[in-house]
Specification:
The protein is about 0% helix and about 25% strand. The chain is an all-beta fold and about 70 residues long. Bound molecules: FE2/S2 (inorganic) cluster. The site of FE2/S2 (inorganic) cluster has 12 residues, from loops.
């Protein structure tokens, strides 16, 4: 079983758009590659500098944030 852990990032305040389609070349951020897929990025406002864990496996129930689901049995 492959375990794909989250992206750990120190984010600065502002509006962030995290990729939910997996096509972006700038993961974990959206680069517009979702166009035509019917999927859209997760838009999040970060209010202060902080470390975030962004889901990389696509299974989080709290997307775009990691909830530990990458460790679950498949
Ligand atoms: S490129 Fe994946 S949601 Fe925009």
């Amino acid at each position: 079983m492959e375990e794909k852990g989250p992206y750990i990032i120190t984010e600065q305040p502002g509006i962030k758009q995290y990729c939910s389609c997996g096509r972006s070349q700038k993961l974990p951020y959206c680069d517009g590659s979702h166009k035509g897929s019917g999927l859209h990025p997760a838009k999040v406002e970060i209010d202060e500098e902080k470390i975030v864990a962004i889901c990389a496996c696509g299974r989080s129930q709290n997307f775009p944030f990691c909830d530990g689901s990458h460790k679950a049995e498949q």
